[in-house]
Amino acid sequence: YREAWDKDKTQISLPSDTPVMLQSKVNALNISNKHYQKAWDEAKAKSYDLRADAIPIKQAKASRDIASEYKYKETHEKQKGHYIGCPSAKEDPKLAWAARAMALQNDRLYKKAYNDSKTQIHIPVDALSVQAAKECQTLVSDIDYRQYLHQWTCLPDQNDVIHARQAYDLQSDAVYKSDLEWLRGIGWLPNDSPEIKRVKNAQDLLSDNVYRTPIDSVKYTSVVDSPDVVLA
How many other CB atoms are found less than 10 A from the CB of residue 61? Predict the structure, then answer.
């Protein structure tokens, strides 16, 4: 069924002068990169002449010199040493002041004199500052802090010292219990006092020896007229 159509598809021919074909050729030329660069390729194949004094060449050289760091600093390097007005940089006041400021800012040079003088300091042992430091060290010392105070630093007859001693005596546990220790074991009551008699009676009532009198401690004689003796 499709055999005739398949044969006709390969045998179709269009005339080359139809509007559609002409338009397609023009479009192909417009979008062709090779046709677009044809004139440039032909110009490259020919020799060209550029003069050294041409305006584009001069402009390129000037731009290169301006952009070059060497050319930019060439004038400055040539003028060094000609505008300070001194034979050398050390004699210029501004440069000397800048060097002095830099030396002052240097921490090592700033502390050099101090480090050299640290080992040369001599302080007498009886100086007030040394004595004050020793007393302060004694006060803050943990060893001296834990020792009992046996050296009075003030007069013993001062009012504050006397008051402190009285407060210590009142607060002391040994002093607080000294009266009890003195009274312990010295209590006394008369023998005929009611409390002593009450205690003795209670002791007699609670005594097992009195409550259970042994039979061998009682004196007795046998009865002659008892029924047992009469019967015997």
Answer: 11
- If residue 174 lies in a helix (H) or strand (E), which one and from where to where? helix 173-176
Q: Cα separation of 118 and 113, whole Å?
A: 9
Residue 55 has phi, psi (to 5 degrees) of -60, -45
Tokens representing residue 204 in the block: 């007699």
Question: What pTM, to 2 d.p., does this model score?
Answer: 0.19
Report yes or no: 170 and 179 within 8 Å, Cβ to Cβ: no
Residue given tokens 């598809």 in the structure block: 9
Tell me the per-residue pLDDT of 91-110, one tens digit each, with 9 for 90 and over.
777 888 888 888 887 877 78
Is 48 in a helix, a strand, or coil? Answer: coil
Locate all alpha helices (DSSP H) within 10-158, ordered by sequence: 19-31, 33-36, 38-45, 55-67, 69-79, 93-105, 107-110, 112-118, 128-140, 142-145
pLDDT digits (tens, 9 = 90+) for 173-215: 777 787 777 777 676 677 788 888 888 888 887 776 666 777 7
Q: What are phi and psi of 106, to 5 degrees?
A: -75, 120
CA triple 172-143-174, angle to 5 deg: 10
* Mean per-residue pLDDT over the chain, rounded: 79
Cα gap 130→122, rounded to integer Å: 12
Q: What is the mean pLDDT of residues 9-30?
A: 84
Query: How far is C-alpha 221 from the chain's CA centre?
Result: 108
